[in-house]
Structures are given as C-alpha cells and as structure tokens.
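Chapter review: from sequence to fold.
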Amino acid sequence: MTVESGECGGGPAGRTRGGNADWLTGSRITAVHGVFYRPEGPAGEPEAVEFVIAGGQSVLLTCTSDWTLRITPGTWPLLPDWCVPASQWQHAPLTQLPPVPYEGAWTVVGTLERRDGNGEVHEAVIRCEEGDFVVTAGDTVAVRFHHRH
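The token string follows.
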C-alpha cells in the first residue's frame, strides 16, 4: 500500500503522490470508522474516515481546510495525533455504510483519485468486489457506498 508517508499532522495537506493511484489494490478492508469530534457526536459528520485493513494496518482519509483529502497511513485503533484533546474525539462506525460482507472483509480491486485544478485529491473511490466506497472532502468528509449490480 503506498500512501503519503510521515505523521498524520505533518506536511502539506492533499500532497500529490506519484503515479500509482492503486494504493490499496488487493487489500481486505475489515472495518470502516469515522473520526468524530465528540461534542457533535456520531450524529455529526466525520472529520476523517479510517479504513481498517486485515493484518492490523489502516488508511486515514482526512478533509483539509481547502476541501481536499489527505491520504495517510492510519493509527488504528489509536486516534490520529491531530485529535487534541483526545478525550474530545472518538472512532465510531459509519451507520450509512453496509455491514462487512459475509466473508469478513471487502476486497479492494482498485482505487481512483479525482483531483481538482491544482492536482490535489478532492474525492477518492475505493473499488471493491461488492461495490465502491466514495470519500469526498468538504467541510467534513462524506462517505457513501455504491453496490455493484
């Protein structure tokens, strides 16, 4: 898996990664969790979404102030470093997403990054055998799932 290296809070947001957008191909996603600011609760929108990968790794997609996505290695089950104070933040399942498939994970078959005029990612599509996760940056992160027919 090739994602931005470095700390979640460091470096320019939305930095363009070189060439290969298929950074999760072949991975098995076992869970998807939002990172929520607790005073708003899980009823609010997540500030980030964390895809938990079989084997203990994770990938974090965070919205930035310019409505782009920053894609970095996650810290599952720990909260990202930028969740300060940590007592005000929580991981929570995203109820609008379908449950994990019967096989125990979604298998990633490819990814697509949609970029703005500056070449920064504003939407990421994680294509799985069962359907597509679409993660879009805005004031917060929007996540939806489109089933394959």
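Two observations follow directly from the output. The first strand starts at residue 28 and ends at 37. The chain has one domain: 28-147.
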